[in-house]
Structures are given as structure tokens and as C-alpha cells.
DNA sequence: GCCGTTTTCGGCCCGACTGTTTTCAGTCG
């Protein structure tokens, strides 16, 4: 589990993403040129590199590029050229050959490589601008293979990406999921309803929603589905598969299946696509073929199983893989070797860290928050109101700190759960904290976060954070990337160094469940875990209503392969207190 | 271009829906 040998992890390195993007564009171009099979190869390589948990330059330095799955001699040579010279002659050559903005055109719904090729050849369309003009002049319906309807769809597609809705927050679609589930369940003809897709995998944002229904009357279910309230547009309607778009822009897909197909259909619909592709290949290697209709023998296509997901994985000789792990980041190999982690469940969480009150920028009192925590069945709650320089909303000051701590002691006497005193303190520009070591040691839980001067370059920001760790008064690094989903990018950090320093200085990395933060996310949790780090789950609550956010943090911990031994919140109170001593 | 518990050659995940067709190609998930 632990891999301390190589701390030089550099997640989501710009270099990695650069390489990924070029490999994917090469695949796009080759697809356009109708080169068989190569596009897949480039995409597979790109995907592996995308989920790499270290800087590809490190892999290159060790001369291990060809050990990346999907990277062989030819692609390794291309990556080498790219890393050594910053350019790739093969890529430049391909770009010249096609001379159009393939990436942009592919982003138009219903427009793929084949149509793009025709549009280019017949009308010289190179980008969306050209496309829109041709659509306006109704030039496209005249082309063979195209028609009035296609023209209409492409027009809508172009308009759609102009006002393209962002990805939706998990938290934001949660009530939509419940509403649709409730409505579908209310039908007598529906035997079973489940949500699949990236929502089911617990991703922090989702592009669309996928529902699966068991019913013997599919047509009736479809009629009901496309006439749900709030449907703005019906994108497709068939006997087993339909798609709608809600007025907020969220697309919802529905598939109706038979009971004996339910497991295989769930598996297919939960994805991820990359996981499915690998699983199907794996099935082939075992003499089976897997589709949404079930697991069949390769010869004779005899139905083997498909009623439940568990049966499919078992039949293939694999451990059951929980949806959160299905991202093709090594779960298949682990399942084959029986080495999947035992993921934490909501009942494993004994309490919550990082809660704000009226003492800084929260809406409720210490007592109200503690009582609500008790009501939720928690065993402890940690108060971490803001402490820092100007720029933070209504922070605690040194003057008010003593009365804050005394107030927390009073609250402790009034509730039946453990109440920890603490702060969320700013990490200043130079890596110091705006409060003395002595004062900090009087508190139970010190969370330190970056709030100000967030645009620092990577080396300086890394130094700033690691230096703060080395002062040895910090228990937890708050919202480590400082990102806000769809709003604000991550701060620039060398994650390998940060993880290493956190491990050495016994600083827990926060998994912050505030819906817009969801920080750290799964892939980084996994990388930090491999570097030997431990974590704390945070609500970042500023209101009573925010206390349940730890369930969202839990999603990310699960996606990051974390177990109870890795998460502070799951430990006994005495063990927590010991771990927090500085 | 990659890869191997049928393989170093000959495969490469699978099926629904739609539009333009007159039996299928393209796109999507």
C-alpha cells in the first residue's frame, strides 16, 4: 500500500497534460484520416498518462516510458522528442496535413470525424465560425449524407456550445436525482430504479445523469420520462433508451432493461467508459464477451450472468469493484490480486473537523453547532474559526481568542459529544503563522490554510506551505488546493514535495466536503496515500445545514482508495488526541 | 500503434438511436 520510495509525485503536471493533449489531438487527426486502430492506441496512451501519479519527466528520466500501459516503442519515442525539444515533428506534420481546428469542431454535438471530413472537403469548413456561416446559408442540407434535420441539429449544437452549461456540482444535482428517482419509482410498471453514471461514482461534478429502470413496459416508462416536469427538450426517445434536457441545461438519460440484464446494464451505465473498455477486454481474455445485456461466452454467445454486478465480477475472477474506484487507475489489477481497499462508509465517520461559527464568518453559535453534531449522531466536533490578517472575513483576533476557548469549554459541559477547540489559521506569504507557537499549542486542532496571495509561482508556494509544516504546530492542511469548482483554479504546488513534507511533519491533509471545494479530490488523495500521508474529513461548515457535508468528503476519500486507518475522523478519541499532539 | 493464460501476428468493446437511406453510416455513451 505505502510507497515511500518515490516521493517525486507531481500530480496533474502541466507537462503531463500537455503530452495528453497532443496525443489526443493526434488521435483525432488520425481518426479524421480514417487510419484504422492507431487512434485508439494514442488515446489509450493519453489516458494512462492522464492518470499517472507522477511527473512524466520522472518516468522519462528513469527510462521507463515504455512501462506505461499503452505506450510502446513508437509513442515512447514521440514523448521523448516532445520532452527533449518541446516539439513533436510528427504532430506538426499531421496538423499541416489537415489544416483545420479539429478539437473545436469535435466539440459540436453530433459532429464527428466523418462529417467534419465531408464538410471540409465540400465546403472548406475549418472551424466553428465557418460552420455557423454555412449553416446560416443552408449550404449543408444539400450535401449527400446530410439533410435538413442534420442542419437543424448542427445549428442547435453550435448555439449550445456558445452557451455551454458548466459541469454540475454533485451537491447541486443530488436533489434532482432524488426527485427523478421518486417520480420513476411511483410508477406501478417500474420494478427498480437506480442512478448510474459519474454521479454514482461520486465524482465532484457531473456532466449528465444516467438512470436505469427495470420494467416490462418500456414504452410507457419512456412516455412518462420525456414528459417529466422541467423537461426543456427531448434529445432522443426510443423503446429502451431516451435522453432529455432539463431547463437548467442538465441532460438526463434513461435506459429501460429487463431484470436479468440489470447488473450488466448498471455496470455499463456506471462506467467509467475507460473502466468498461478495460473490463470488456479482460472478459475477452477469459473467453467471455461483456455488454449491457450480460456476460456471454465468446463461442456460441451463451448467457452466463448479468442479474447483478457482483455476479459479473465474480464470474470474471475479480473482487467486486465499488463504483468510486472505476476510473481505470489500477482497480482491475488490484481486484485480480484481491488487493482492493476496504473503503470507508458513512458510519465509520465518528466526527467532523473544520467548523465555523459566529465567532468568525459562520451563521450559528458554538452551542447550536455542537448540538446539531450530537443530533447527527457524531461523537465529536472540532471548531476552527478563522484566524488571520485582514482579508479574511471577520477573523478571530488574539484578543478574542481566550474568550473563544472559554466559550468552547462551556459548550463542552452542555453537550454529550467531545468538543475540540481550534482555529483555521492563515499561512502567511513567508510560510509563518500569525500566532505564537505557545498560543497554538493551547488549542486542540490547528488547521492552516492558504487564503491570500494565491497567485504565487509553484516553487515559492511549495516553500511557503512546506515551511509552515516544519514549524511543527500545524495538525491539518486546510483545503489543500484552494480551488473552487468551475470558479477558481488550484494554487500552484509541487505535490510530491508537499506530500512528503506532510508525511514527515505528521500533518493531515484535509478532504474538504464543501460542495464548491471538494478538495482534495480522489486522484490526489490516492497519490498522497501512496506517498504515506493521512487525511482528515472536513465539512467547512458555516451553517447548521452544512454539517452533513462530511458525506461529500467521504465520496472523495473513497475515490482516493482511503481506508479507516488513513482517516483521522474514523479513529478513537484517544487515538485522535494523541495524533494531534504537537 | 500496442499487445499476449488460445497470439511476436492478427486482432483491437459493444450496442442504441437517428437521419438519410432503401440496408446503413455516423455519433454517442
Just name the CATH architecture of the largest domain: Alpha-Beta Barrel
Q: What is the CATH topology classification name of the largest domain?
A: TIM Barrel
Number of strands: 19
Tally of separate helices: 24
Task: Determine the N-to-C terminus distance.
Answer: 27 Å
Helix content: 40-55%
- As a whole number of angstroms, the C-alpha radius of gyration is 26 Å
Physical arrangement of strands within the biggest beta sheet: 13-15-16-17-18-19-11-12-14
The share of residues in extended strands comes to 15-25%
Going by helix content, strand content and strand pairing, the class is alpha/beta
The largest sheet, given as strand count, sense and whether it forms a barrel, is:
9 strands, parallel
Uncertain runs are 1-12
Estimate the mean pLDDT confidence. Answer: 89
CATH class (first level) name of the largest domain: Alpha Beta
